[in-house]
Description:
Layout: E1 2-11, E2 19-29, E3 34-39, H1 45-53, E4 60-65, E5 68-69, H2 75-78, E6 82-85, H3 99-107, H4 121-132, H5 151-163, E7 169-173, H6 181-198, E8 202-205, H7 209-214, E9 218-223, E10 226-232, H8 233-237, H9 241-252
Parallel strand pairs: 3-8, 3-9, 6-7, 7-8
Antiparallel strand pairs: 1-2, 1-4, 4-5, 9-10
Helix pairs in contact: 3-5, 5-6
Amino acid sequence: MLELINISKTFNPGTVNEKQALQGVNLTLEDGDFVTVIGGNGAGKSTMLNAIAGVWPVDSGKILIDGQDVTALPEYKRAQFLGRVFQDPMTGTAATMGIDENLALAMRRGQSRTLKVGLKKDERDNYRELLKGLGLGLEDRLTSKVGLLSGGQRQALTLLMATLKRPKLLLLDEHTAALDPKTAAKVLQTTDEIIARDNLTTLMITHNMKDAIAHGNRLIMMMEGKIILDIKGEEKKNLTVEDLLHKFEEVSGEQFASDKAILG
């Protein structure tokens, strides 16, 4: 479903601020893979997701989604293949519009706009059922402005919007990092349920090692723009934080150090 072939990206080349953010990254995701991504600051995690989304062009290599080469496609054209949830709960929704209107925008993604009734009763009924599945009481607040929601409610809504059209690839960029632990756990539970229900191929960046281990069927660790660990199957199921730290030290020759990583 996703192929990264020898992807490289350097920022500010030829200057004192030159940074090799991605160095020959190769990664293949099969249909339905749920891959968690972890690494220290500057490891290349978000750069990789932004490269897949088309936020900026890569310097070399190829990006294929479901067999289609999207390397040269701009961000707005890649959007038809992708769902994305960002770290900031304020991103991804229109704050001054109602919950139902935001869902309608997500449902009409990629379609031409016409001058007709915005929302029909059957649409609202459908949205109400979808919201009920979140367990946050939002089904009774369809017309509430999204800007009035809490961070967790808004992030859950953004997740629902990102997956409404069942994207070929779901990108989650530390989407629970700005939430308190209890709310983050609820959003992660909802994430697991939606991904399992729709069999979505997913890349989830997290700074929490426990979450990286507990979720998904595969874990990759990045360092200095490269993938240095790729753990799956029974090895992933039996993995502990201590195991992961030991594997990192074996591969990298140094101790894992990050001011953001939550080790346990």
